[in-house]
Amino acid sequence: MAKAPCQEHPQKVLGWAAVDKSGTLSPFHFSRRENGDDDVTVKIQYCGVCHSDLHLAKNDWGFTNYPVVPGHEIVGAVTKVGSNVNKFKVGDRVGVGVIVDSCRSCECCQQDLENYCPQVIFTYNSHSKDGSKTYGGYSDFIVVDQRFVLRFPEGLPSDAGAPLLCAGITVYSPMKYYGMTEPGKHLGVAGLGGLGHIAVKLGKAFGLKVTVISSSPRKEAEAIQRLGADSFLVTSDLVKMKAAFGTMDYIIDTVSAVHPLAPLISLLKLNGKLVTVGLPDKPLELPIFPLVLGRKLVGGSDVGGMKETQEMLDFCAMHNIAADIELIRMEEINTAMERLAKSDVKYRFVIDVGNSLPSRY
Amino acid sequence: MAKSPEQEHPVKAFGWAARDSCGHLSPFKFSRRATGDKDVTFKVLYCGICHSDLHCIKNEWRDSVYPMVPGHEIVGVVTEVGPEVTKFKVGDKVGVGCLVGSCHSCESCVNDLENYCPEWILTYNSKYTDGTITYGGYSDIMVADEHFVVAIPDNLPLDGAAPLLCAGITVYSPLRHYGLDKPGLHVGVVGLGGLGHMAVKFAKAMGIKVTVISTSPGKREEAVGRLGADSFLVSRDQEQMEAAKGTMDGIIDTVSTVHSLLPLIALLKSQGKLVLVGAPEKPLELPAFPLLTGRKVVGGSAIGGLKETQEMINFASQHGITSDIEVISMDYVNTAMERLAKADVRYRFVIDIGNSLKSTA
Question: Which residue intervals define the domain Enoyl reductase (ER) in the entry (chain A) (predicted)?
Answer without folding.
Answer: 23-351
